[in-house]
Amino acid sequence: MNAINPWILAIRPKTLFASLGPVILGLAIVYNEFQQINISLALLTALCALLLQASSNLINDYYDGVDGKDSDERLGPLRVTSSGLIPAAQVKKAFILTLLVSFLIGSILMIHGGIPIIVIGLSSLFFAWAYTGGPFPLSRLGLGEIAAFIFFGPIPVWGTYFLQSKVHHDLPILFGFVPGFISAALMAVNNLRDRKEDKANGKKTIATILTEMGARYLVINFILLSAFFLPLVTREPKSLIVILPALLFFKNWKKVLSAPIDRDLNNVLANTGKYLFLQCLVHSIVILL
């Protein structure tokens, strides 16, 4: 672990691909409808999504560290603030810097997209901070899964589509449910892993409200929704291909249901992130077909 740069640990690069999936999905919908995309806008959108995810990870690391929510028994990846690998003040400067760069890039997108993108951009910046920071952190009010569904699902897919087309359409919102469900599953796996520690620290999550088995089934329900949402909505035979990615990760879901709650759930979390990215790619292919 010491061989890994502490800043890489703090940014948690394995989570970053999950933020790209909704952008790719939005671009696929645009290309299918208009047969062209603005590459510059697409790259700026993807970069902004990556920076917001990195900012969120740094903010989470910082606030859980300074608030004493991380303990030596923590099952999740090593946190740089609580472990002392990076001083808290430096982590704070880093997340402020990434938020600032996100805002500067987002300003270009907001100028291009107008009021809808301004609302999306500013609310995304705010909730990247408010998830763990502020007087009423969403992550400690049992709202983590809902926030993940909204801000890593319908909002980025619709926002990407609108930036490219300047057209409001319900289709990107519907397709955004898919990465939204998987993002909620990611949050649910995270909260399942931390359930015991969170209960001890008085941190309220859906996992602490439910029984352990209920928290496990919550993850599986989100995965089932992500796999069957498109076939149920479109009722087209070709859409059944989107069930395949979920089957490829069958062992992962089996661990969610029956494996001990230990550090191996970190691998389950990483695989769920890979599933999100793959599912967005498969849905994009179905759209383009």
Model description:
It contains 15 helices and no strands. By secondary structure, it is mostly helical. It has one domain: Farnesyl Diphosphate Synthase (Orthogonal Bundle). It starts with 5 loop residues before the first helix and ends with a helix.
List the helices and strands and how they pair.
Layout: H1 6-11, H2 16-34, H3 39-66, H4 80-83, H5 88-113, H6 115-130, H7 144-151, H8 154-165, H9 171-193, H10 195-201, H11 206-209, H12 212-234, H13 244-248, H14 250-258, H15 265-288
Helix pairs in contact: 2-3, 2-8, 2-9, 2-15, 3-5, 3-6, 3-8, 5-6, 7-9, 8-9, 9-12, 9-15, 12-14, 14-15
Our Rg estimate from Cα atoms comes to 19 Å
Mean pLDDT level = 89
Q: Any low-confidence stretches, pLDDT <50, length ≥5?
A: none
Q: How many domain modules?
A: 1
Task: Report the CATH architecture.
Answer: Orthogonal Bundle
Q: Based on DSSP secondary structure assignment, what is the total number of beta strands?
A: 0
Q: Terminal Cα separation, in Å?
A: 44 Å
Strand content: under 5%
Shape type: globular
What fraction, in percent, of the residue positions are helical?
over 70%
Name of the CATH first level: Mainly Alpha
